[in-house]
Design brief:
The chain is an alpha+beta fold and 333 residues long. The protein is built from 9 helices and 11 strands. Strand 1 and strand 2 form a beta hairpin.
């Protein structure tokens, strides 16, 4: 079993895990719970009393990393009552989501420039084996011969957002091998009936990955992502997707493209869906002179969903503006 036997059990486990995580002196856990609670009103309502109680106590007693203390200092000034749940709007074929907490997320590697998408694992940099991350683990267990560590995403942007780290103790860098690719393909396909809407995203280094420790990003949403729409030419439609998008319907065909990208040091994003993998080669991060709202493009943005930290942009951005900005990341422009 991977995490839970079905979707309802998964959502209950997700919510209960957030409740258990809160403690009197854990700034990091508090920030994670607050950020995750804002993805839906029901989740926020169930956690708000605990969050408020902990927030008041941690103003004087809270401890955490430098990143956590910086984030909490902002929250202490602003308060948490006005931290609103995510708000969403469709702009033509694209999705916009106002998510105020994402502005507080540390950049780590996602802000660096890369000449190569293969870098050695560095024990001194942030990785998913750090002891202080233990409270953020949603589930650990074995699935099909591999050990998985599944953590909450501290600053989520996708519904029921997960960080999936296979065989974490092997300390592999963010670079795909054929067996791991096949394992993720099988995992997504196996979950399609148990957890409908389950999918997995992947960022190579140079394409939005913020941690050089092999990991994937899980989510659960019943709606198709914009990149999955039948309107696009890569699905037989009549519209050109702004980015080069190459869907593969076999695990081997997808791997051959991944291997080619990696050998060429071509940054890329992936989306795994049941029986299908979308491959999106793109311009390296830091090389595109994009608008502020369109910077930091990773797998979710490549798939057509942009997270905003300015509420005024939710209603002001047009479909044309979004298409134009996304096209700037096209690898062959």
């Amino acid at each position: 079993m991977f995490i839970a036997p079905d979707g309802d059990a998964f959502r209950r486990q997700f919510s209960k895990g957030l409740s258990r995580m809160l403690s009197a002196d854990g700034l990091g856990a508090f920030i994670l719970v607050l950020a995750n609670s804002l993805q839906q009103h029901k989740l926020r309502h169930s956690l708000l009393h605990l969050l408020q109680r902990n927030f008041d106590s941690m103003k004087t007693a809270g401890q955490g990393s430098d990143d956590d203390e910086s984030v909490f200092a902002i929250l202490a000034r602003e308060g948490i009552e006005d931290q609103l749940c995510w708000r969403q709007r469709e702009a033509g074929c694209w999705e916009l989501v106002y998510n105020n907490m994402r502005r507080l997320r540390p950049e780590r590697l996602s802000g660096e420039k890369f000449d190569a998408i293969s870098q050695p694992f560095d024990e001194q940099r942030f990785n998913f084996n750090r002891p202080f991350l233990e409270p953020e683990i949603l589930w650990q267990g074995d699935w099909c011969g591999h050990h998985f560590r599944v953590l909450y995403n501290k600053f989520p942007f996708a519904p029921w957002h997960l960080l999936i780290v296979p065989d974490a103790e092997t300390r592999r860098p963010q670079y795909l091998d054929q067996d791991t690719h096949a394992m993720m393909w099988d995992l997504v396909r196996a979950q399609q009936h148990l957890m409908p809407g389950f999918g997995v995203g992947y960022n190579s280094l140079g394409a939005g990955a913020s941690v050089n420790h092999l990991h994937f990003q899980g989510f659960v949403r019943s709606e198709l992502l914009p990149v999955e729409s039948p309107r696009w030419r890569h699905h037989g439609g009549d519209k050109a997707y702004p980015l080069d998008c190459r869907p593969a319907s076999s695990v081997q065909a997808a791997w051959e493209m991944v291997e080619q990208f990696q050998q060429l040091h071509q940054p890329f994003n992936l989306l795994y869906r049941p029986g299908l993998c979308y491959l999106l080669p793109r311009q390296p991060q830091g090389r595109v002179a994009a608008e502020k709202w369109a910077q930091g493009v990773a797998w979710y943005e490549s798939c057509g969903v942009f997270t905003l930290d300015d509420s005024s942009q939710l209603n002001s951005l047009s479909q044309w503006q979004i298409s134009r900005q996304l096209a700037l990341y096209n690898h062959d422009r």
